[in-house]
Design brief:
This protein is mainly beta and 559 residues long. A hairpin with a 2-residue loop joins strand 61 and strand 62.
């Protein structure tokens, strides 16, 4: 019976004490202060096992960086306070966000301790986004300022980043190691001279993007991503609808290396070169994935490279260039395309691929189909003076078209082209004055081995092959079913052709030289080659103008 009474007396006594304290005007007692410290309500969240959960969407600084707590002056754990604590203490290496929008409102760039502007990262840090959005304000979102720091982001959306004019990295600039998993980087921008990386700038560090999306960003260079040195790896990532002066999806400079696997670079647009990707200096490797429906005002609707570029098993389709190389423009260095599909690309010259002087391109076991070139010709491939292109591995060049000078599939304007095996079929040089339904040689050299040239069409001359200068050597080739106004199979206006083995058959000319035609001063020599069943109103098998040389196994033919 005493316990209830004791309890009652205790409660009454405590109440009296509280009343006395209030009556005396004592604001705080020592034990009350101690209780507030121990509870931590006024000092933010304590770092536990290297981790804090951000509880506030406000943008405010950490009150005491390095004290093992995340909290501003009001005790709120904000994202900025957490990053500042991580930089200062080294004890915090994991920040957890909630599914909400975090706006960076503290203006003022030019400092690197996350006190204002972007969130500067100086130590290795992981941020679990859990579907959160971080919106920049007057600066980028993250800046990895220390080369030895690693920033890992997961399940986040970064948007609204816009650093001061002339600075790169709309959402992220990183000099350290950057890892993005399931992250979307959207609607960020950089501007001003030298600015690059509308979404991300890898400034000489390393960047890995997995299952990420970088879309609708803008920059003078590298609309989605720019890499100035360092290594950039993209895995199952999408670069979509970005805009830039050059390299709207990705731009490499400063000897940068990039490796793309099962990645989509689609619907980007550049005012200059590289609607999808631009390699100014560096090495690009692409395996699988797509580079499609990109646009450039200059060369390389899909890819413009002056460095080293290797694509394997990739679809490069539907790209458009205002200059040359609808899919790929090799402006220098070495380009290799292996088991690649180049379909439906368009350009002023080289509907699929253009090889400039001093550049080298190798195309192996690939299909170039349905591409189109304008006045400069080369529906599938154009090679400029001094350029080198090698096509092999049973590649198919089919149903490509060219206007202007011609070259329904290939135009060689002074370079060196070899085609080893494969099929060149169903290509067209559309204009009335166009030459070379299959191939047009204008001053360079072409070597064909084991190639089928069939059912190609030219508006004027050389349904299968036309030369207006230079030379062509054919070995073990078939020229079947081609058609033109003159020289249905082969037409040589200037230069020389030697063909050793197989046949020229079933070709047609509207005027003369159903199989072969040589103008004055030109030469065609057949060695162990069948010449049969060609058709034309005049000289159905072979026509040799006065002063031309057309021979078969050393004997003159044609008239």
């Amino acid at each position: 019976m005493r316990r209830p009474l004791v309890a009652l007396l205790t409660i009454v006594g405590f109440g009296c004490l509280a009343g006395a304290v209030q009556a005396l005007g004592v604001a705080r007692l020592p034990f009350a202060q101690t209780s507030a410290k121990e509870g931590g309500a006024g000092r933010g969240a304590a770092v536990r096992d290297g981790r804090v959960v951000v509880g506030s969407a406000a943008d405010s600084r950490d009150a005491r960086p390095g004290d093992g707590r995340c909290g501003d002056r009001r005790g709120r754990c904000t994202l900025r306070a957490a990053v500042m604590e991580a930089n200062a203490s080294g004890e915090l290496d994991r920040i957890v966000l909630r599914r909400r929008t975090y706006r960076l409102r503290l203006r003022g760039g030019g400092e690197d301790r996350a006190r204002s502007g972007d969130l500067d990262v100086r130590r290795s840090l992981t941020i679990e986004g859990r579907g959160a959005t971080i919106r920049g304000g007057g600066d980028r979102v993250f800046d990895v300022v220390a080369a030895g720091a690693r920033l890992s982001l997961g399940r986040l959306r970064l948007t609204g980043g816009a650093p001061p004019a002339g600075e790169g990295g709309g959402a992220i600039r990183s000099r350290g190691r950057l890892v993005l998993t399931g992250v979307t980087v959207a609607r960020n921008a950089v501007g001003g001279d030298g600015a690059a990386g509308g979404g991300i700038l890898n400034d000489g560090g390393s960047a890995l993007l997995r299952d990420a999306q970088v879309n609708r960003n803008e920059a003078p260079g590298g609309g989605a991503i720019a890499a100035d040195g360092g290594t950039t790896l993209l895995r199952a990532t999408r670069l979509l609808v970005n805009r830039a002066g050059a390299g709207a999806g990705l731009q490499l400079a400063g000897g940068a290396t990039a490796d793309l696997r099962e990645t989509a670079v689609e619907r980007n647009a550049a005012a200059g070169a590289g609607g999808g990707v631009a390699v100014a200096d560096g090495r690009l490797t692409v395996a699988g994935g797509t580079i499609s429906d990109n646009r450039s005002g200059g060369d390389g609707g899909g890819l413009a490279t002056a460095g080293t570029a290797i694509a394997t098993g990739t679809a490069i389709a539907g790209n458009v260039a205002g200059g040359s190389g609808g899919a790929v423009a090799a402006g220098g260095g070495a380009t290799t395309l292996k088991q690649v599909r180049l379909d439906g690309n368009r350009a002023g010259g080289g509907g699929a691929v253009h090889v400039a002087g001093g550049a080298r391109a190798a195309i192996e076991a690939s299909t170039l189909q349905g591409n189109a070139a304008g006045g400069a010709g080369g529906g599938a491939l154009s090679v400029a003076a001094g350029g080198v292109a090698a096509i092999g591995g049973g590649s198919y060049l089919v149903a490509n078209t060219a206007a202007g000078t011609g070259g329904g599939a290939i135009v060689d304007a002074g370079g060196r082209v070899t085609v080893d095996g494969g099929v060149v079929s169903g290509n067209r040089a559309l204009a009335v004055g166009s030459d070379g339904g299959g191939l047009l040689v204008r001053g360079g050299s072409v070597a064909l081995r084991g190639v089928e040239l069939s059912r190609n069409l030219a508006g004027r001359a050389g349904g299968g092959l036309a030369l207006t200068g230079g030379s062509a050597a054919l070995a073990d080739c078939l020229l079947d079913g081609n058609a033109a106004a003159q020289g249905g199979g082969i037409d040589v206006a200037r230069g020389s052709v030697e063909m050793a083995g197989r046949r020229v058959s079933g070709n047609r000319a509207a005027r003369q030289g159903g199989g072969l035609r040589a103008a004055a001063g030109a030469a065609i020599r057949l060695i162990r080659t069948e010449l049969t069943a060609n058709a034309a109103p005049s000289a159905p098998q072979a026509f040799a103008a006065e002063g031309a040389t057309v021979t078969r196994d050393g004997e003159p033919i044609g008239r």
